[in-house]
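FORM 12-B: Structure-to-Sequence Request
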């Protein structure tokens, strides 16, 4: 796989991410989908500081890509794993500050990006790789996927998983994963609500394409607002969350041309034509 950024020639340059050269990931934009691929297969896609910086740069470059509705995060097809965690070269104590700061930068970028992020896991997602996979807004896994947070065995704890897992699966299940370091299968992850769908490896790409097509055909600003409401409301008291959702609905959503077009399309019994504004 070409490690350089590749762009669909049909995409307007003003709406596509900058043409950046990457050494550790591949970026491809095709129509409404931007695919970010972990591209260090020989190392099981272990995350170096440089690789994490490239991921941050790639996500941030998509902020102004108006035609992009969905970001897909996956691993190169010849990879032994989705991601085996932090590279040992960058896990040493003297590099811990830079590593953690850069690692957290990925998650800040994923939170701040208005576009839904779909992660695709075909193999092991371990340690930081598990955190990266599960932080996606939606997760699709093959039957060969496994997930684990084994940091405790190295005298560490996973800084992101310790925050997000209790929200995703509750504190008792989160404690079990983090304190034992045990691996869970794709089907177990599905049962816990960590992933959205599990399919045979042979059907993975077809399933992913069908899944993201359902999202990509929607209005980009409506997708962005829906994601915004969900994440900004989490953890708030119910009354405050309701007020925040109503404020966005009435003062932002209703001002969109696409919302008005969607209502017209229902009345006229036709498919809406989005202007993405």
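FORM 12-B RESPONSE
SEQUENCE OUT:
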């Amino acid at each position: 796989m070409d490690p350089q950024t590749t762009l669909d020639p049909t995409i307007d340059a003003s709406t596509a991410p900058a043409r950046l050269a990457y050494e550790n990931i591949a970026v491809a934009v095709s129509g409404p989908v931007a695919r970010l691929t972990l591209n260090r297969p020989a190392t099981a896609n272990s995350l170096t500081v440089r690789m994490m910086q490239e991921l941050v740069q790639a996500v941030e470059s998509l902020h102004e890509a108006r035609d992009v509705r969905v970001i897909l995060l996956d691993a190169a097809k010849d990879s032994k794993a989705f991601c085996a965690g932090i590279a040992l070269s960058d896990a040493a104590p003297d590099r811990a500050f830079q590593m953690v700061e850069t690692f957290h930068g990925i998650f800040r970028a994923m939170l701040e990006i208005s576009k839904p992020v779909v992660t695709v896991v075909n193999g092991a997602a371990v340690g930081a790789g598990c955190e990266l996979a599960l932080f996606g807004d939606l997760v699709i896994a093959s039957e060969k996927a496994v997930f684990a947070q084994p940091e405790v065995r190295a005298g560490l704890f996973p800084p992101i998983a310790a925050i997000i897992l209790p929200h995703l699966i509750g504190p008792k299940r989160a404690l079990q994963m983090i304190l034992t370091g045990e691996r869970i299968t794709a089907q177990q992850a599905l049962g816990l609500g960590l992933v959205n769908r599990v399919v045979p490896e042979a059907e993975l790409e077809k399933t992913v394409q069908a899944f993201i097509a359902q999202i990509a055909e929607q209005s980009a600003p409506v997708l962005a607002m829906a994601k915004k409401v969900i994440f900004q409301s989490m953890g708030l008291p119910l009354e405050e969350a309701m007020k925040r959702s109503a404020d966005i609905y009435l003062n932002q959503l209703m001002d969109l041309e696409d919302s008005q077009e969607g209502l017209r399309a229902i009345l006229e019994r036709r498919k809406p034509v989005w202007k993405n504004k």
